């Protein structure tokens, strides 16, 4: 392939744009526009939906969607495949995302955000009066025991937590190395866990995996952590469970209607809210930049990206 034109879906840090520029001309484009300029490679983020209506108006010359991020639920993979467009991701976010999930767990259970807000407002007494929930020794239920789920489990081991999990299939090696116990059903996990962490992919089977029924089956006072994908949780049902007092707290890095956050969520002292920053470390973002460039280079040289998802 001669030097391609790269269509970038949103402004990126200049260092990233410079790195992409080694492959060819770089243009920043708006995928919601009526027409998209000619190009060969789309460089996208998880915030850029690329469903059938967007794919239909892409230039015929586009043959790769290089995603900056591990999740590709924002792309219609089957439709892209039918159009002969490869889709790649950057599976280098495991450890940083697990760090963030652990941080969410600690911050939510100990009400760190609320305590800090009161302190910054000059209200020492209210900050000091925030009684949280103990983390060490509790039962952590992990839904989705892939790389990130296992990385979180390793961290939880240091807190003496009992680890239970549900997944598409058993993970015997993880059970042995992490002393994790497999739950045959999601319902079993929800009934036993003090803290539930969502670390599964978003797909038609997992959308709203935590809905009103699931929330009702969680222990009274249990805590929900979501550093996976927003639509794993029915946000309206989550708000109801928090308002009723059935749920002890929630730590969220992702949202059902991202980047919009339901206003009701901001009013709870037992809810920690972060703006989708699971991979937001200097080191991880550098790794992601290198990986997307590697995928583009491999695609140019061999016709297939290294991390092909479809």
Fold and architecture overview:
The protein has 310 residues and is of the alpha/beta class. It contains 12 helices and 12 strands. Helix 4 (94-109) packs across helix 7. The mean pLDDT is 95.
Instruction: Work out the radius of gyration.
Output: 21 Å
Structural class: alpha/beta
**How would you characterize the largest beta sheet?**
7 strands, parallel
Number of strands: 12
Q: Kindly report the spatial arrangement of strands forming the biggest sheet.
A: 8-7-6-9-10-11-12
In short:
With 310 residues, this protein is of the alpha/beta class.
Relevant terms:
single chain, alpha/beta, seven-stranded parallel β-sheet, globular
SSE blueprint:
Elements: E1 5-8, H1 14-21, E2 25-28, E3 41-44, H2 52-57, E4 64-67, H3 77-82, E5 86-88, H4 94-109, H5 112-120, H6 124-128, E6 139-143, H7 147-157, E7 162-166, H8 172-178, E8 180-182, H9 186-192, E9 195-198, H10 212-217, E10 223-226, H11 235-244, E11 249-252, E12 271-273, H12 282-302
Parallel strand pairs: 1-2, 1-3, 3-4, 4-5, 6-7, 6-9, 7-8, 9-10, 10-11, 11-12
Helix pairs in contact: 4-7
């Amino acid at each position: 392939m001669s030097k391609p034109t790269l269509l970038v879906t949103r402004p990126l840090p200049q260092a990233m744009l410079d790195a992409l520029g080694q492959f060819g001309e770089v243009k920043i484009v708006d995928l919601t526009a009526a027409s998209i300029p000619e190009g060969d490679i789309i460089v996208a983020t998880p915030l850029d939906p690329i469903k059938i209506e967007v794919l239909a108006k892409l230039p015929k010359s586009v043959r790769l969607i290089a995603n900056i991020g591990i999740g590709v639920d924002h792309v219609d993979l089957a439709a892209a495949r039918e159009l002969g467009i490869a889709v790649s991701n950057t599976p280098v976010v495991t450890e940083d995302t697990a760090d963030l999930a652990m941080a969410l767990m600690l911050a939510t259970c100990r009400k760190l955000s609320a305590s800090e807000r009161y302190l910054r407002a000059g209200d020492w007494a209210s900050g000091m009066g925030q009684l949280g929930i103990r983390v060490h020794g509790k039962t952590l239920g992990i839904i989705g025991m892939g790389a990130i789920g296992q990385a979180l489990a390793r961290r939880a081991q240091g807190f003496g937590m009992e680890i239970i999990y549900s997944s598409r299939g058993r993970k015997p090696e993880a059970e042995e190395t992490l002393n994790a116990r497999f739950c045959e059903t999601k319902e079993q996990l929800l009934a036993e866990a003090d803290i539930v962490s969502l670390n599964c992919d978003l797909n038609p089977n997992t959308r709203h995996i935590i809905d009103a029924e699931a929330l009702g089956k969680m222990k009274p006072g249990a805590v929900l952590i979501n550093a996976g994908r927003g639509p794993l949780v029915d946000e309206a049902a989550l708000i109801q469970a928090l308002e009723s007092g059935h749920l002890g707290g929630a730590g969220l890095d992702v949202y059902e209607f991202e980047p919009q956050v339901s206003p009701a969520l901001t009013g709870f002292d037992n809810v920690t809210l972060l703006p989708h920053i699971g991979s937001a470390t200097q080191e991880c973002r550098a790794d992601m930049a290198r990986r997307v460039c590697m995928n583009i280079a491999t695609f140019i040289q061999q016709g297939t990206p290294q991390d092909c998802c479809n």
